[in-house]
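[09:14] KT: can someone run the structure on this one? pasting the chain below
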Amino acid sequence: MYPPRVRARILGLVAVLLAAGCIRLGKPPTPPVMPIASPSVRVNGIEIEIEVGWMPKGTRQVTLLVTVFNTSVLRSDDLAVDIDVHGFALADGRPRWSGLVPIRSKIYQEVTYTMPVDARAGRIDVAVRRKRSPMPFWRTELRFSRSGGSVRLVSSSAPR
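[09:31] RB: done, structure tokens below
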């Protein structure tokens, strides 16, 4: 497979990323996540499942959870998950992730956003692409509004 030196570097990089909180392996967060989209796409012969969910957090916050699952027995290409927002400010987490998704493993990306006091609506765009390509092979758009003291999902585009 890989020479011992390369394996040691890969394991070291994964350990650093796990320690820094950039990626999480294992169980997703326990609060109830409302699923939005969970399509399956084929990239270079590798089957990838992408799940997007959200949960309200307080009166002005939204937590977004993106799960990328490599269901294949082949290693994935370098993938990137990009989360862009309009009408929100980053509260916690990292809106960008890139790396390999191990065979039959899931990567969880959790990001919390706050809607400013004067804002009534916001949009979150989620895109998954090959790391070296600017064009996503999967994307969805989520529109939120704030009314009655909480943020709620108004609409979501079909994944494309």
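[09:33] KT: thanks! Residues 29 and 94 are 16 Å apart (CA to CA).
[09:34] RB: yep, looked fine to me
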